[in-house]
Backbone:
């Protein structure tokens, strides 16, 4: 008994540490991005050729140094986070709305709708993301809006399959059968009885997918397939700084660290949510 209690206590402390560290990393970056206009009133595009390629910590005005055009690296990292976080959160929200609706319909009604939606999902899952991205961008073009649409199209399937599987396990439970017996309409059963029971795993997947989408946006922008190069973004800063790695490493290293810390914070929050919402996993630590 003491061993189980001690293991549970250590697991609880570890989960608390996960939450605190994840909240500090992800929350700190989000707050910095939200208030970047007050922190850097001059903006991230202020050019000063006399201060180009200053190393970090050499001037108080440029604590993380400057880039080849004399722009402050810290200001660009914080401002660039707007694009990555915007893509991450908006694309996940769109994928959740579409995927949850499709999963509810397919799992509850079965039959024709289930077959059509799930076969379409299987076809999409069989297509490599990079092939989908290149094809979509070649047809629709790049840009912020198209990047968000691409991520929504590529990820709604995950939510649809997750929700469908959960609905299939719940649709014949007593509380659903009772609701049907007393004449509750289908849309109320879906929204008031089934949907609340699905929020736990959906929220966990959302948290992890925000981190994934930040990486995907940065990767595609680095390859020249993402947002406009003129807009400050972490992927664009990495691409701009790769030619200066030997002489001015800070131009690309600090945007890379911003991606690393933000994604790490979101993943820690996702792990904490998974452990907290899954009773079977609380003693696995």
Residues:
């Amino acid at each position: 008994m003491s061993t189980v209690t001690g293991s549970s206590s250590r697991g609880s402390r570890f989960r608390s540490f996960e939450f605190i560290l994840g909240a500090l990393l992800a929350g700190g970056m989000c707050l910095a991005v939200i208030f970047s206009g007050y922190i850097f009133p001059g903006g991230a595009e202020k050019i000063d050729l006399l201060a180009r390629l200053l190393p970090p910590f050499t001037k108080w005005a440029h604590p993380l140094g400057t880039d080849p055009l004399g722009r402050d690296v810290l200001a660009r990292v914080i401002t660039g986070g707007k694009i990555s976080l915007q893509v991450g959160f908006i694309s996940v929200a769109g994928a959740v709305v579409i995927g949850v609706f499709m999963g509810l319909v397919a799992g509850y009604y079965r039959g024709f709708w289930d077959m059509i939606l799930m076969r379409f999902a299987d076809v999409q899952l069989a297509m490599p993301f990079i092939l989908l991205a290149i094809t979509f961008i070649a047809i629709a073009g790049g840009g912020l809006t198209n990047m968000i649409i691409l991520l929504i199209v590529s990820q709604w399937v995950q939510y649809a399959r997750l929700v469908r599987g959960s609905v299939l396990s719940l649709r014949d439970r007593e509380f659903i059968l009772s609701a049907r017996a007393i004449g509750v309409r289908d849309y109320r059963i879906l929204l008031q009885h089934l949907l609340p029971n699905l929020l736990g795993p959906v929220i966990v997947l959302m948290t992890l997918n925000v981190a994934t989408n930040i990486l995907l946006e940065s990767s595609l922008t680095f390859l020249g397939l993402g947002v406009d190069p003129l807009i400050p973004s972490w992927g664009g800063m990495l691409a701009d700084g790769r030619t200066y790695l030997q002489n001015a490493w800070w131009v690309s290293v600090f945007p890379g660290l911003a991606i690393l810390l933000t994604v790490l914070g979101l993943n820690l929050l996702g792990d904490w949510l998974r452990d907290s919402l899954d009773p079977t996993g609380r003693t696995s630590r």
